[in-house]
What we know:
By secondary structure, the chain is of the alpha+beta class. It has a domain at 27-118: Beta-lactamase Inhibitory Protein, Chain:B, domain 1, CATH 3.30.1450. Helices cover 27% and strands 26% of the residues. The chain is flat and about 65 Å long. The N and C termini lie far apart (80 Å). The relative contact order is 0.13.
Amino acid sequence: MPSNRPVSFFRATIVGIAFAGLIACSPQLTTHGNMVDPDALAKVEPGRTDQATVLGLMGTPSARGSFGEPTWYYIGQITERQAFYRPKTLDRKVVYIDFDEAGLVKTIGALNLSDGKKIVFVSRETPTAGQRITLIKQLIGNIGRFTPEDN
Length: 151
């Protein structure tokens, strides 16, 4: 009597490979940056909360303003990646907190994905002085330029 063992093993292998393929194609959500906790943000009050308290409630900011009054930025986003496709940004939140000269919170604001703007890159190149040297010219040009005394 013939055994069905090879056929059932083959079917199980095919089902396993198909299942692994389906899992690989499922979207993967990832969080990048600092997604601010709404409860922690609600505890920050303009004119009352100082920088140390904000740091304790919300953690280290993603970025700090370089000019003018101190501004802290908490930046976070959620992206979705599916198989080999380009990642898609689902949500982006930027919370900014301005401080006055005494170190107290002055204003709190928030921006989201719809507030962002696409940046169009300029395709021009900045001309540089000198020659355009190819890789071959560089290699040949360096032959004989270095002596054992240079080491």
